[in-house]
Amino acid sequence: MVQQLTEQTFKHAISGGPIIVDFWAEWCGPCKMMGPVFDELSKDYEGKLAFAKLDTEAYPGPAQESAVSGIPCLIVFKDGEEVDRIVGFAPRPMLKQKIDAVLAKV
Fold first, then answer.
1. Is 73 assigned a catalytic role?
2. Which of 11, 74, 80, 93 has the most Cβ atoms closer than 10 angstroms to its Cβ?
3. Does residue 28 have a pLDDT over 90?
């Protein structure tokens, strides 16, 4: 299940971990392509990695704090700290491979 974050819930959500946050916007074509892939992958990692999305248009604060300069931007956090990031669209197999590599580090 993918959690929808706001500026109010962001800090709390990333304080545990690990969690991957999809920073996206409605007007972003690659973000719209990433959405279904991200949702689908969330089922594969249930119990191992939390999945969340944050709309950068509605809630720009966390994106600015996390130095997000291009979207879609997926950032993996653990204990409130950034562990890794994936910028741009990636097809399911490539994204799964990248997530597996990040999880091996945490």
1. no
2. 74
3. yes
Catalytic-labelled residue, pool 31, 63, 76, 95: 31
The full set of domains in the chain, from first to last, is 2-105 (3.40.30.10)
Sequence-distant (6+) residues with CB within 8 A of 8 are none
Give the pLDDT confidence of 72-89 residue by residue, as tens digits: 999 999 999 999 999 999
Q: What is the pTM of this model?
A: 0.95
What is the DSSP track for the chain? -EEEE-HHHHHHHHTSS-EEEEEE-TT-HHHHHHHHHHHHHHHHTTTT-EEEEEETTT-HHHHHHTT--SSSEEEEEETTEEEEEEES---HHHHHHHHHHHHHH-
Q: Which of 5, 13, 20, 28 is catalytic?
A: 28
